């Protein structure tokens, strides 16, 4: 695609702030949701949302530094590590940090191996017939999450709401119109425009519902904001230092860690998942490469992107508790807006750190209805899926072998096939990728490409 801003292009200061805000809005819901889900799965410790946002920003800056500013992607809280985080919570905050270090060291070790053996094996192991449907699967596998948010059933099926769907679709259509038919400036910030339009529409519905006492119309819950000053104005209601993980670990001490046995248990929780997330790391960078027209596997190199992801996860967890991963929402935002500027990504990271101390912003984000997030995600996840399908253009789908390889990836992946070995679980995407690689190896070399 033709980029409006290439990697090293520098937008004007004011415009760049708006572009960064858009990226932040694209990734912030998922980043803040991970600690909430971890807290809901255990009662040993309480992870802080603002700290997770701070960790994501710090981890992204580390990633950009290690990749020498050549890979425009944001690192956010990884959903793949939710189960390990819930398990590690029993060992306290220090247990979470130890787990993140184990996961990061897996990446560092792989990075060192790549440094010596090169990256040619990546293209041989993951040709377009495998990487294309895998990238598409990443987008398609998230479709359920997008729709659950859209129809307000993410928490419970009983919350299904047609008005919420309408609010989400307003968000989606305004985003689409701004991106396709808007002015040049509007095309660069369609998500900001879409979210604001959806929020205003949802607020109008909520106002009508409040005046008419109709619960069904009350889409926006403002309690996160109104609760800020429930006990009168306090400075801490505005500026609040996030409860950073390493600070909590120092206060807590290492009594819950349990010595060598505890550390071994934590390693078994995190190390297998790190290998699984590596597959998604490669797929995301292959996808981003096709969007920006630069092979990130070669430059800055897979070794550096993996190293950046691993060290970024460690740093992110030390501050926010959540290991990070490259965000498909960020890739989708780059694809739709045509803005791949590394300066925008860096500004997004700094903005994430700054706003993590500004409590009203974090609470405002918590008032954004899930249906609006769902409407935005239809576009974001859809672009990821379409990007994967575009990679299949060079593949001859008239060949039965290629059809079988694609089928081995899409059907198990969309169907949700996972492999569970006790506490170790291989995600549907990783399982589908493994099946695709095995099928491709069994059927032998592809005979023809377009």
Describe the structure.
The chain has 450 residues and is mostly helical. It contains 21 helices and 4 strands. The protein has helices spanning 13-41, 49-66, 82-88, 92-117, 120-125, 128-141, 143-150, 162-180, 184-188, 190-212, 223-226, 235-238, 245-252, 259-292, 297-320, 328-337, 342-355, 359-367, 370-391, 400-415, 428-443; strands spanning 75-77, 324-326, 419-421, 424-426. It has a two-stranded antiparallel ribbon with strand order 1-2. A two-stranded antiparallel ribbon has the order 3-4. Strand 3 and strand 4 form a beta hairpin. It is globular, with a radius of gyration of 22 Å. The mean pLDDT is 89.
Through-space gap between termini? 20 Å
User: Segments where pLDDT lies below 50 for 5+ residues?
Assistant: none
Q: Mean of residue pLDDT? A: 89
Into which percent range does the helicity of residues fall?
Answer: over 70%
Cα-atom radius of gyration: 22 Å
Q: Total helix count? A: 21
Number of strands: 4
Q: Strand-and-helix sequence, N→C?
A: HHEHHHHHHHHHHHHHEHHHHHEEH
Trace the largest sheet across and list its strands.
1-2
Q: Quick one: biggest sheet?
A: 2 strands, antiparallel
SSE-based structural type: mainly alpha
User: What coarse outline follows from CA principal-axis ratios?
Assistant: globular
